[in-house]
Automatic annotation (TrEMBL):
Residues of the DHHA1 domain: 244-331
A GO molecular-function descriptor: nucleic acid binding
Record domain DDH: where: 17-168
Name the record gives this protein: Phosphoesterase RecJ domain-containing protein
A Pfam family hit: DHH
Length: 337
């Protein structure tokens, strides 16, 4: 779906107050898209600011513009006032206002026009300007096409190129997921020509692990359970394990993918206890046409894409695992034939 993007170009012809919002617990794609749009809109002469619902991992903090990102949960007053005064609100890398959690009531109250640029399935209809395409591998790739559609490819400078490259790289598993197309590679080539330093960006994201992350990975892999009869694996990380290994935000990013490296496995899930509140964050991944978006939506109050989705459970870890093992029977045929 692609509505009114040209019309949005006309709205952007005069200076506006603009707030840019990624989803809660933003990943590389969400922060990359938000910061790229931030740089782009400020180049156009707008007064643009990124407000993230909460903090994001250290391995994304080097990104150009990162120091300007306001966190809603710690700077509520300033953030609310910016949202109240906004003419336009860009919501990036999500398509339902639930994804910003505590920030939702403030956004709902705003009279600004909403823009949605996103690649998840089943978008809600809160936005006036919508560019939604679940076939796209990343929101950052869509931001590139958005800027190009508005005739501004030449405004993509080193900062914008760096942010977009980061999001495309992280959401595509370094260009290996099936959503990576020849167009993705052309976009990435253009971003390199415009200043994105591919090797440095990869190192900045993936080669800055703290020891806590590697120890936690060891623990996660030890906890991995293979359910051969369902071609499924799951991993658990309890609160005490997270505490034992000095968990920091972002440390568990990507762990769920290890499950899919096992031969014949089609479905991999990780259950991670929250360290502050009483719930369990769930990440689901699949290969082929098994839809984890459906599983997350139906059973775990979440959603996402066919091969990557997330959700949560308010049950205990034991109860959550029991529920998960039970529901697998409903999917046995899809997982084994
Ligand atoms: P992750 O497992 O990396 O947190 O998320 C995988 C994908 O599912 C991402 O595209 C993410 O935006 C989406 N996702 C993660 N958690 C949720 C959730 O609670 N609700 C919805 N609708 N999508 C989610
Ligand atoms: Mn994304």
């Amino acid at each position: 779906m692609n509505t009114n993007i040209q019309e949005l170009g006309e709205v952007l012809a005069s200076p506006k107050n603009i707030v840019i919002v990624p989803h809660k617990n933003p990943d590389g794609d969400a922060i990359g898209a938000a910061l790229a749009v931030y740089h782009y809109l400020n180049i156009l002469g707008h007064n643009a600011v990124v407000i993230s619902p909460n903090e994001y991992p250290d391995f994304l903090k080097w990104m150009p513009g990162s120091e300007s990102v306001l966190k809603f949960d710690s700077k509520r007053k300033a953030a609310k006032s910016l949202i109240e005064n906004a003419d336009l609100i860009f919501t990036l890398d999500f398509n339902a206002l639930d994804r910003v959690e505590d920030m939702k009531p403030t956004l709902k109250k705003s009279e600004a026009a909403f823009v949605m640029i996103d690649h998840h399935e089943q978008p809600d209809d809160y936005a006036t300007y919508v560019y939604s395409d679940p076939k796209m591998g990343s929101t950052c790739e869509m931001i590139y096409h958005f800027i190009d559609t508005l005739g501004h490819r030449n405004k993509i400078d080193k900062n914008i190129a760096t942010c977009l490259y980061t999001g495309i790289m992280t959401d595509s598993g370094s260009f290996r997921f099936p959503s990576t197309t020849s167009i993705t590679h052309r976009v990435v080539a253009d971003l390199m020509d415009r200043g994105a330093e591919n090797s440095d960006i990869h190192s900045a994201v993936y080669d800055t692990n703290g020891l806590s992350r590697l120890h936690l990975l060891g623990c996660a892999l030890k906890n991995l359970v293979l359910l051969e009869e369902y071609n499924t694996v799951y991993i658990t990380l309890s609160r005490s394990e997270l505490e034992q290994f000095g968990f920091k935000k972002g440390d568990t990013e990507g762990f769920v993918n290890y499950g899919l490296s096992l031969k014949d496995v089609r479905f991999s899930v990780i259950f991670i206890a929250d360290t502050q509140e009483d719930f369990i964050k769930i990440s689901l991944r699949s290969v082929g046409d098994f839809s984890v978006n459906e599983v997350a939506r139906e059973h775990f109050n979440g959603g996402g894409h066919i091969n990557a989705a997330g959700g949560r459970s308010d049950l205990s870890m034991e109860e959550t695992i029991a529920k998960f093992r039970e529901l697998l029977d409903n999917y046995k045929e899809q997982l084994t034939t």
